[in-house]
Automatic annotation (TrEMBL):
The keyword Zinc-finger applies. GO terms for molecular function: DNA-binding transcription factor activity; transcription cis-regulatory region binding; zinc ion binding. GO terms for biological process: regulation of developmental process. PROSITE patterns: ZF_HD_DIMER. Residues 21-74 form the ZF-HD dimerization-type domain. InterPro entries: ZF_HD_homeobox_Cys/His_dimer. Keywords: Metal-binding, Zinc, Zinc-finger. One of its GO terms (cellular component) is nucleus. This is ZF-HD dimerization-type domain-containing protein. It comes from the Eukaryota. Pfam families: ZF-HD_dimer.
Length: 106
């Protein structure tokens, strides 16, 4: 998982970015003009793109065989005190000073 570093005027805050893929939103009845969801509650990788595939695909859901993109993405930022090592998967964000909430000013 990626880390996110928010930089505001030299002050940095580190967050762990947690991505979760929840319920499947794939409408299986588009050609018929109504909504039919498969009811899959959460993406689990390792499904098969085609019925005769021998190995699973990391981007295909093992439960409903839909691509991961059909699953609702949930993003959570968890504050961390120290950057985790190795530090190779980091997103750096420099915040515009005008975006700072007033209540955080001293
Ligand atoms: Zn599905």
């Amino acid at each position: 998982m990626a880390q996110v570093v928010f930089n505001f005027q030299g002050e940095t805050n580190h967050y762990e970015l947690i991505l979760a893929y929840k319920d499947c939103k794939h409408n299986h009845a588009v050609p018929f003009g109504f909504v039919l969801l498969d009811g899959c509650p959460e993406f689990i990788s390792g499904g098969r793109r085609h019925e005769d595939d021998e190995i699973g695909d990391a981007l295909i859901c093992a439960t409903c065989n839909c691509h991961r993109n059909f699953h609702r993405r949930e993003v959570t930022f968890v504050p961390i005190r120290q950057p985790r090592e190795p530090d190779n998967n980091v997103i750096y964000v420099t915040l515009d000073p005008s975006l700072r909430p007033h209540e955080q000013q001293h």
